[in-house]
Amino acid sequence: MIERTDEQWLSDLKESSPHFDFALKDLRILLIKGLRAGVSKWKKINREDFENIVEESLIKIIKNLDSFKGHSRFTTWALKIGVNTALTELRHRRWKDVSLDEIVESKGMKSLLETVSRPSYSPEKQTIQRILMNTINKLIRTELTERQRKAMLAVRFYGMPLEEVARQMGTNRNNLYKLLHDARLRLKEAISKEELSLKEILDSFGSS
Question: How many CB atoms lie within 10 A of CB 94?
Fold first, then answer.
């Protein structure tokens, strides 16, 4: 593997460069070495999936060469793209066999309240939280359409990846963004009619 400066990496990885194939091979070796230790600590990934992550990372790096600003070494920047690609794959794998309907119908807002509530909170604060969450739960059920409710709960409350939600809902990422945007506006309007402020809601989940 040849030692390169940042400028040499950028120059050699241009597809028109006579050194492109050699630079790409070296970059692949760098990613494999850098990711192998890290990925093995997160979760076991089979060889085929690992190779796919490396190849996808290479494509992203080549495609985004112009976005490299030099705030870190090129190799550090490239490895970060590889790590983010691996993490995205792991998140997708986590949700791959999870039903969107199951998330929305079986969990609802109850487990959300259990997640955000802390044992250290005073009984008074826990009571306020419960009242607010019950109100928000009611508004989500009554003010949002079925698709808005499903998307809002899955994405905003339970962290399901946008791509997976879009796939299960039979839509695409852009349409899902629009659906979530409309849902937030309707929910915000409904919350204001209940004479609740966003600050009041956030404060109730702040540190005690």
Answer: 14
CA torsion, ordered 62, 68, 73, 74, to nearest 10 deg: 10
In this model, does residue 196 exceed pLDDT 80?
Answer: no
- What mean pLDDT is reported for the chain? 77
Give residues with Cβ within 8 angstroms of 112, minimum separation 6: 133, 157, 158
Q: Name the fold adopted by 6-95.
A: Rna Polymerase Sigma Factor; Chain: A (1.10.1740)
Q: Quote the CA–CA distance of 199 and 91 in Å, as a whole number.
A: 31
Ramachandran angles phi, psi of 120, nearest 5°: -75, -15
Which pTM was predicted? 0.50
| Domain assignments of the chain as residue spans, ordered by start | 6-95, 100-204
Cα–Cα distances in angstroms (integers) from residue 64 to residues 55, 67, 68, 78, 147, in the given order: 14, 5, 7, 10, 35
Residues 86 and 37: beta-carbon distance below 8 Å: no
pLDDT in tens, 109-167: 444 445 445 555 566 666 666 666 677 777 888 888 988 888 888 887 777 778 888 88
